[in-house]
Amino acid sequence: MQSESEVLERKLSRAMGRALGDFSMISEGDRILVAVSGGKDSYTMAYLLRLFQRKAPVNFEIEVVNIDQGHPGYPGHLLADYMEREGYPFRMVREDTYKIVTEKIPEGKTFCSLCSRLRRGILYSLAQELGCTKIALGHHRDDVLQTLLLNLLFAGKLGAMPPKLLADDGKNVVIRPLVFCAEDEIRRFSELKEFPILPCDLCGSQENLQRKRMGRLIDDLERETPGTKQIMLAALRNVKPSQLLDSGLWKTMGLAVADEREEQREGTLVPESRLRSKASTPWVSEG
Ligand code: SF4
Q: How far is CA 156 from the centre of its chain?
């Protein structure tokens, strides 16, 4: 009989494999910079990617990277020791973004937006330096769903997180292999594997409160109606562009509304058959 850890490993591997395949995330000869923060998600991603590497139909390399951002008391050695013990190709890079962020952001304001922009910039430069063809980030299903609601309710746009994107610098390709993986399964897997988790409150910044709120809302819905999260995820994989009100999208999809006179003559707008869903491309530029 399989242990709980083995069951979860299979489940998470399957979900990751589906994402890798659906969005052609890894190609022959890729060298992937795997960004680890010391949290449960990136540990799990590194673990699963290495597992996949051993039996994948394509050859690729991984380079696990952590950025020590200069937060006081950062216990990076826990992560470094683990990576060394487990034989991962690993490097830690020190860049004091903490100093920049605390100087630039007024007291009481959250650091996260600038901090993560700086971190992303470091990763992009590093990937180029190391000759990496892709950068893997550990965002999972629940991050995707929270972003969907944040965009819908606070940004006035319908979108979540691209599973694969070409960065604005036109050079770096970011992949998110865990987009189909459930956070609670990652959490449990990480506990069972005893990954040495690094605390994430050293920066003293407030967490993104709206994101937390979206997380709670989705968790409540899931409690009331189990399966809600999977249904939300299914919705993201089953987009009906013609049932949205984005005229630009209509044009892109070749659904432009016919000439008004013609419509009147024919007593119709666009025929229903033309409004059937066409899959939208997951390969998008960074927005
Ligand atoms: S929680 Fe801290 S380390 Fe993480 S993004 Fe925000 S400021 Fe940066």
A: 20
